[in-house]
Design goal:
Helix content is 37%, strand content 22%. It is α/β, with parallel strands linked by helices. The chain has three domains: 57 residues, no CATH class; 61 residues, Orthogonal Bundle (Arc Repressor Mutant, subunit A), CATH 1.10.10; 179 residues, Rossmann fold (3-Layer(aba) Sandwich), CATH 3.40.50.1360. The relative contact order is 0.11. It comes from Caballeronia fortuita.
């Protein structure tokens, strides 16, 4: 059971071990039947946290958490890095860099544009604008090895029996996978993918925030989710990010997602930021916070030299996953 500072207790929402005779539908229904009530100290009856009308939608989304997309090859990954760094690159320059034909580069650019990873123009390709994020299913495959290394390093610093927030993001989902061998974790999340991972593979006790479910990435956002997060104080908050600017500003693309992440930072005793190397210097629209609010940054490569001053000023621990 989780207890908040107002004397409320929250029923066990979801466990990874389905009891004998239960099917997957029963497991999913447990997620949408969260109850809130007074603890033994406060008295009172339990009341439904999620309305019955929301249950079918929530259940339907939870059933469809698995997606599959073709992984990027090494050339395509390097091409994305080049376009992200320079903003624009011509087909001819890319063909010369990778020592392949222009036709091969055009095929790569066309495919990457179809995946919403860059913008295709006559004669070249450009990075997405600061108001556009890469498609979620594509992000699941980008820098996957790097994200898994980051996740293993984060998991090594989380003790058994800890309480955690885990928010939206493909890197935080890899952290959830890396935590599956831990015991006695209590996890609060607004990410249905995280809930699904831990429910299937761990003995963690889970609480899932209520609110609006985004079909594209199974994230739960909105004022209800923010209010839910603010009821708790946990040992560790694990958050992802879309952009880390040179001055240490943290940015993302969606204001509703940012508000939940801000609440997680406020309600965590220790905040871990997980971000692969592509997030440094990337453009994004909405300010989330600053590196000075973070206790440790977990990444897959040493931060660029131009980040040295802001990292030093933020007094943040840097953990590089090898």
């Amino acid at each position: 059971m989780f207890a908040n500072e107002s004397g409320y207790s929250f029923s066990h929402i979801l466990t990874s071990r389905q009891r004998s005779g239960e099917d997957g539908g029963q497991c999913a229904r447990e997620v949408v039947s969260a109850s809130i009530g007074r603890s033994a100290h406060g008295g009172g009856a339990f009341s439904s946290y999620t309305s019955a009308s929301d249950n079918f939608h929530f259940f339907a989304i939870l059933r469809d958490l698995k997606t599959s997309e073709p992984a990027l090859n090494g050339r395509q990954r390097a091409l994305l890095d080049r376009v992200a760094r320079d903003g624009f690159a011509t087909i001819e320059d890319l063909a010369a860099q990778f020592q392949v034909t222009p036709q091969t580069i055009r095929r790569d650019v066309n495919w990457l544009a179809d995946q919403n990873l860059l913008r295709r123009y006559h004669g070249g390709a450009s990075a997405l604008t600061s108001s556009e994020n890469t498609a979620y299913t594509a992000r699941q495959q980008m820098y996957l090895d790097e994200k898994r290394r980051i996740a293993r390093l984060v998991a090594s610093e989380i003790p058994n029996q800890a309480t955690l927030f885990i928010n939206l993001g493909t890197t935080t989902e890899e952290v959830a996978r890396a935590l599956c061998q831990h015991t006695g974790l209590r996890v609060i999340t607004n990410n249905l993918n995280v809930a699904n991972i831990l429910a299937d593979e761990s003995d963690a006790e889970l609480l899932v925030a209520g609110g609006k479910v985004r079909a594209r990435d199974k994230g739960v956002v909105g004022e209800q989710a923010v209010d839910f997060i603010r009821m708790f104080k946990v040992d560790f908050g694990i958050i992802g990010i879309s952009s880390i600017e040179e001055d240490g500003t943290l940015r993302d693309f969606d204001i509703a997602e940012v508000r939940v992440a801000q609440a997680i930072i406020e309600q965590s005793r220790t905040v871990f930021l997980v971000a692969d190397h592509s997030k440094f210097g990337r453009a994004a629209l909405v300010k989330l916070g600053h590196l000075s609010q973070i206790d440790a940054l977990f990444t897959d490569a040493p931060p660029p030299e131009w980040m040295a001053e802001s990292l030093a000023a933020a007094d943040i621990a840097i953990r590089v996953a090898q």
